[in-house]
Structure prediction request, 130 residues.
Amino acid sequence: MNLLGRRQPEIYGSRTLHDIELSLREEFPGVDFLFFQSNSEGAIVSELQRLGYDEPGVDGIVLNAAAYTHTSLAIADAISAIPQPVVEVHLSNVYAREEIRRRSLIAPVCAGSISGFGAAVYSLAVRTFM
Prediction:
């Protein structure tokens, strides 16, 4: 996700993660966002746990677990252990891609999944909490 906008723009688009963050703040001015990105599975687990138990007022979590979607039982366990709903998002249509990308280990413990609409998936996910 840190290379978004540069890595495979034909699949993931040309917008950076920072562009998406700015767009969400503009679209939803009354929402207090906390953005977090890490390439480390353990850091993602720790952040989910922190948001779940130590950050009051978190109504929901929008999560693009990228490739960890297909491999991480640790992230799935972290999602299932927190009280807030989590919406899984993917910029690309994972069901139109390689076989491995069609299987999500986190989907069964998420409130829902949105994929294939580019950066709009984030806005759509935020709307589920309103």
Q: What stands out?
A: The chain has one domain: 9-127. Helices lie at 9-12, 17-27, 41-53, 73-81, 120-127. The domain at 9-127 is CATH 3.40.50.9100 (Rossmann fold). The mean pLDDT is 92.
